[in-house]
Structures are given as structure tokens and as C-alpha cells.
Amino acid sequence: MVRRPAALLIAAYGLALAYFLVAPALPDVGGAGDLNTAVSDVPATFLLASCVLVLVPARDDWAALALIVAGAGLLAGAVTVAGSAPLAGITKPLFAGAAGMLLARVLADPAVAIAVPLFAAGIDAGSVAGGTSQLLSRAGSGTHDFLTVYLPAWGGGRAGLLGLADLIFLGFFAASAWRFGMRRRVTGAALLAALPATVGIQLAVDTTVPAIPVLAAALLLPNLDRLPALARRLGERPA
């Protein structure tokens, strides 16, 4: 039981590190529109989501999560200051995923598992309305910003930035889904696909699409028939 989560964690973070190291050396595919952005950002966001979701087995171990938050946060800060985008690319999802799951452990209430995605999605949608898309932005550096994850472009440069808050909410949503009896497999698959889907949607409609509403939809839509029962359990906490 212990070996499989550990193997998945090593695989997820190893693949993410390898991708962040190799991506700048891969050929710029060019082509029409934002093809290079798509082929750069889709695998990057998929791997970052994987790095968060492999932490789900630790969702109830608050002590381990707190240690990960402290250690990964310090390490992520150090490598960000040093300008090491590949190392920051794996330490930030470790920090954010653990932080989101720790928050979900503290706020372990069924009603919160419904209210937080709706509230956060509304705030995120409102905050980016009419603004530029940071996820797909290629201006500036971003390697020294702790609150974002630098997404390298094939051929060098930056394909975009992913907000650390998006990964924190991903961890929160995943832990809540597992804790409160939502459909684990389909919800996990939807959450895993949500960030790459956000990239695809933004490129398709050529406008700002915030990630948190897409994550919230990935959590709630596969479980619509179970939400009324969860809402009625207001005030309950898991044993």
C-alpha cells in the first residue's frame, strides 16, 4: 500500500523535472497561431497537476502535510530566488498541493467542500474579467516570482505562467473529493485534465479563461447527484 503512492510520487516529480529541463532544448514547432504554446503548456500543466494529485494519499496526515508545506515552501523560495525554473517547477506544486490539502483538512466540512469551489470560482472569474491571460503570457521573465510557476516554451523562452493559487485549490478540491465520498476516479481524471483544458480553451476562444472555475467544474460536475446529500450534512466532520 505504501510502495505504490511512493512510486507514483517519484514518477510524477521525476517526469516533471525532466520536462522542465528538456523543454527549452526541444524544437519550436512554429506553425499557425499558438501551436508552440499549446505543445509547451499542455504537458507542463498536466505534469504539474499530476504532482499535486499524487499527494492525495497523505490528505489526512496533517503533520506530514505541515512538514511538506514548511520544507517545500522554504526550498521553493530559495530556488526561485536563485532563478532555477526547473527546480521551482517541482517544489512549488509540492508546496501548493500540500498547502491545499492541509487547508482541506482544517476545513473538513461537507458544506465547505461545495461552497469553496463556487466562491473561489466566482472570485477568480471576476478578477480576470477583461484582463490579460497570465497563463498564456510570454512577456517578461517570471522566474523570480514565488506566486507563479514558470512554464518553459519549446525552443526556449516562456510559454506562460501558472498561478500558485491554482495548484493550491487543485489540492484542496482533490482532498475534498476523496474525503467526502465523491466519485474518485472520474473526479481525479477531471481534475487532472482541468489545467490542460484551460490552456486549450483559452487558445480556442482567444480570451482570458481563469483556471479555478474550470477546476471547480471538474470537481462538482461529476458529482452533481451527490451534492444535495453533502449539503445536508452541514456541520458534520469526518471521524
Describe, in plain words, how this protein is organized in 3D.
The protein has one domain (3-232). The protein is 65% helix and 5% strand. It has helices at 3-22, 35-53, 62-82, 85-106, 110-128, 164-179, 184-205, 211-220, 227-232, and strands spanning 148-152, 158-163. The protein has a two-stranded antiparallel sheet. The chain is globular, with a radius of gyration of 17 Å. The two termini are 22 Å apart. 46% of the residues are buried.
What is this entry, summarized?
A two-stranded antiparallel ribbon has the order 1-2. It has nine helices and two strands.
* Low-pLDDT sequence parts: none
- Order of adjacent strands in the largest pleated sheet: 1-2
Query: CA-to-CA gap between the ends?
Result: 22 Å
With helices defined by DSSP (H or I, 4 residues minimum), what is the helix count? Answer: 9
Give the tally of β-strands. 2
Biggest pleated sheet: 2 strands, antiparallel
Rounded mean pLDDT is: 88
> What percent strand?
under 5%
Number of domains: 1
What percent of the residues sit in helical stretches (DSSP H or I)? 55-70%
Class inferred from helices and paired strands: mainly alpha
The coarse overall form would be globular
Order of helices and strands: HHHHHEEHHHH
Radius of gyration: 17 Å
